[in-house]
Amino acid sequence: MPSNPLAPIAKRLTGKLKRAATAGAVPDVAAVATQWLSEKLGYLSAMKIFQDLSREELLEVERATTMINCNAGRVFYIPGETGEVLFLLKKGRVQIYCLSPEGRKLTVKILEPMTFFGEMAILGQGMHNTFAEALDDCLICVMSRQDVKRLLLSNPRVAARICEELASRMVETERRLEEFVFKDVEARVAALLVRLAGEGNEVIGYTHQELADLLGVYRETVTHALDRLKTRGLINIQRKRIKLLNRAELTEISGAPLSASPGSMV
């Protein structure tokens, strides 16, 4: 992260103008500024928490945020850091995870575009208790703690939508905990594939290690479970792409009770 993530948008515009001048184009400050504003408002209005705001209300949010690009691998925060900004994810994916003292990794959530993160340190305990890392090149907006609180107090609709998202994440966490306790690894892998596929029949962009981190198990454990599902003709495995060939049976497997073997919880 830059040392000052709330730097003026003018700095971003300056970069655009310099690139235009280098390319031999005649920079039009008004045109560049208008395009930049339109692009930013488009991203903000596409987010669920802002989707029913008027243009005037969106302009207020726009003035309180700064849009920046981050490379894959960038760590936004670590446990123990004080949370000073809310992150609005526009493009790319961000991984929220914990590390054990031994270095074991548990992925709490992989965030897709048009959502937010870093909210607990802003609204709750004041400090982060997880890591947040960019899995892809990301485009994000950042908003200061003071501006977030001002927005929530002035616009109950935004506050309500953030509460809805936090409640949804809590339900997901409880479900994952239940699966960890009551289901074997193959059932948990099947359930994860069904969830990640959403309404479709493919899981794209996840390595075996990333799937393992989402389940809190070793990569080899996930690979063996996937091979068993493939042998049964339920999935087809390619590089970072898993096709669900029998979603109904995978859904049925995901509801299977925990097997008697204690080794299945590795």
Task: Give an overview in words.
- The structure is a single chain.
- The protein is of the alpha+beta class.
- It folds into two domains: 9-175, Jelly Rolls (Sandwich); 183-257, Arc Repressor Mutant, subunit A.
- Helices cover 47% and strands 20% of the residues.
- The protein has ten helices and eleven strands.
- It has helices spanning 9-22, 29-46, 55-63, 119-123, 145-154, 156-182, 185-197, 208-215, 219-231, 247-254, and strands at 65-70, 75-77, 85-91, 94-99, 105-111, 115-117, 131-134, 138-144, 202-204, 235-238, 241-244.
- The strands form three sheets. Strands 1-8-3-6 form a four-stranded antiparallel beta sheet. A four-stranded antiparallel beta sheet has the order 2-7-4-5.
- A hairpin with a 5-residue loop joins β4 (94-99) and β5 (105-111).
- α5 (145-154) packs across α6, α7 crosses α9 and α7 (185-197) packs across α10 (247-254).
- The radius of gyration is 21 Å and the shape is globular.
- The two termini are 36 Å apart.
Sum up the structure in keywords:
single chain; 266 residues; Jelly Rolls; Arc Repressor Mutant, subunit A; 4-stranded antiparallel sheet; 10 helices; 11 strands; 20% strand; disordered C terminus
**Fourth-level CATH superfamily of the largest domain:** Jelly Rolls
| Overall residue-averaged pLDDT value | 83
Decide which structural class fits the backbone.
alpha+beta
In percent, how much strand structure appears in the residues?
Answer: 15-25%
**Poorly predicted ranges:** 1-14, 257-266
Instruction: Give the CA-based shape.
Output: globular
Rg, nearest Å:
21 Å
Give the topology string: H per helix, E per strand.
HHHEEEEEEHEEHHHEHHEEH
CATH topology of the largest domain: Jelly Rolls
- Put simply, the count of helices is 10
Compute the number of strand runs. Answer: 11
Helix percentage range: 40-55%
Q: Tell me the major beta sheet.
A: 4 strands, antiparallel
The CATH architecture of the largest domain? Sandwich
How are the strands of the largest sheet arranged? 1-8-3-6
Summed up, the domain count is 2
* Text of the CATH class of the largest domain: Mainly Beta
Query: Span from first to last CA?
Result: 36 Å
